[in-house]
Amino acid sequence: MKLKFSIIFFLFIIKSFSQEKDLIFYIQKAQSNSPLLKDLSNQIKSNKIDSLINRANYKPQIKANLNAYYAPILDGFGYDLTLSNGQTVSGLVGINKKIIGKNQINTQGESYQLLKEAILLNKKVAIKELNKLIIGQYITASGTAQQLDYNKKMGFLLKDESSILKKLTQNSIYKQTDYLLFLSTVKQQELQLLQLKQQYQNDLGLLNYLSGETDTTFVNLKKPNITIQESFSNSKSVFLKQFEVDSLKIINQNKLINNAYKPSLSLLGDAGYLSAFVLDAHKNFGFSVGLGLSIPVYDGNQKSLQHQKNQTALNTNLAYKTNFNKQYQQQLLLLRQKLQQAIAIENQLQLQLQIVDALIEANKKLLLTGDAQITDYVIAIGNVITINNTISQNKINTLQLINEINYWNNND
């Protein structure tokens, strides 16, 4: 029964891990499932529609109005006929066309373009943040998978060594306590292997969660190929570009304020039927044209105050930009420093691993002849497992640092 269960479990594991997915798969899933990115895309579409609505306001506005009016006089009481005409019927088509200068039209169009650029920048940053999040979790899950693979191999090795030691113990070459000490190490490795399996399952589940996917199956993750991407000048950074767009929006607001204080001219006109039925009602078809002129005179110095307010906003934006630029440079310096430290640690760990591996190989040979000290052998095995796990953690940390550097140092 145990054999049958083991075979079924083995086949299940083989089937579960037969699938293989890479980093691109999860990034694409996360971007397609992100409600924030969909929201920002819809904001861009909405801004385009608002721009078209604004342009439509420049075109002639035509309205058709139909009115019928009757003011009776009863027993000598009623509206003055001189004012009310007693009754009025009108059916008019009116037209109103604002006469706006090209400079004003361009300024209003610029405001929509700047809003579009701001949304596009927000979308770029949102994509960068989402990608960094997915890449970070993929690195974690992939690192756990690599630790799991190593500890599986180590588990098989320890079981083989345990079988050899058991036979040697039965032949009285080693003490029973030596075998039990080694067996406890095997059991500790089995426990660690179980914990790593559970950790990988949790890491994979979180990766699916962040990608917006509902999936609990075990899959193999391809080893991530993450390298430092080519950097660019600070002025091209998407983060600094946001400050520039904010400044341009404030400058554009100043232009809009100035335009609001310019005289505005409108062309007015209507055509149709307007009659009080007093005289020759059938001849009361006609038209009218006119001009409307509005000239701002005084509003309590609001224009100057609004410009002062915008200048304050410009100064604030500049202060934030200057501070961000300093922190941006310092952030990259710290990340590169940590990356160099991680590389130095990797070199030291590899040197330690060579020594411990050599010690393990020497003990294996001594084990067959009965000359190995089991206590020393167990310590050496513990050291090699610890060093390899530390190397895996350091590789994960290195890739996370590269991911963070790429986030700040590249616009993709």
Topology of this structure?
Elements lengths: L1 H15 L3 E2 L1 H11 L1 H22 L4 E10 L10 H4 L2 E13 L2 H69 L5 H35 L9 E2 L16 H23 L3 E12 L9 E10 L7 H68 L4 H36 L3
Parallel strand pairs: 1-4
Antiparallel strand pairs: 2-3, 3-5, 5-6
Helix pairs in contact: 2-5, 3-5, 5-6, 5-7, 5-9, 6-9, 7-8, 8-9
Question: How would you briefly describe this protein structure?
Answer:
This protein has 412 residues and is an alpha+beta fold. It has 9 helices and 6 strands; from the N terminus they run αβααβαβααβαββαα.
Query: Which spans of ≥5 residues are poorly predicted at pLDDT below 50?
Result: 1-6, 8-17
- Please describe the biggest sheet, giving its number of strands, its sense, and whether it closes into a barrel: 4 strands, antiparallel
Q: Element order, helices and strands?
A: HEHHEHEHHEHEEHH
| Secondary structure: number of strands | 6
**Annotation field: number of helices:** 9
Mean pLDDT: 87
* Percent helix: 55-70%
Percent in strands:
5-15%
What structural class should be given to the helix and strand makeup? Answer: alpha+beta
Structural account:
With 412 residues, this protein is of the alpha+beta class. The chain is 69% helix and 12% strand. It contains nine helices and six strands, in the order αβααβαβααβαββαα. It has helices at 2-16, 23-33, 35-56, 81-84, 102-170, 176-210, 238-260, 302-369, 374-409; strands at residues 20-21, 61-70, 87-99, 220-221, 264-275, 285-294. The strands form two sheets. Strands 2-3-5-6 form a four-stranded antiparallel β-sheet, with no helix packed on it. Strands 1-4 form a two-stranded parallel ribbon. α5 (102-170) packs antiparallel against α7 (238-260) and α8 runs antiparallel to α9.
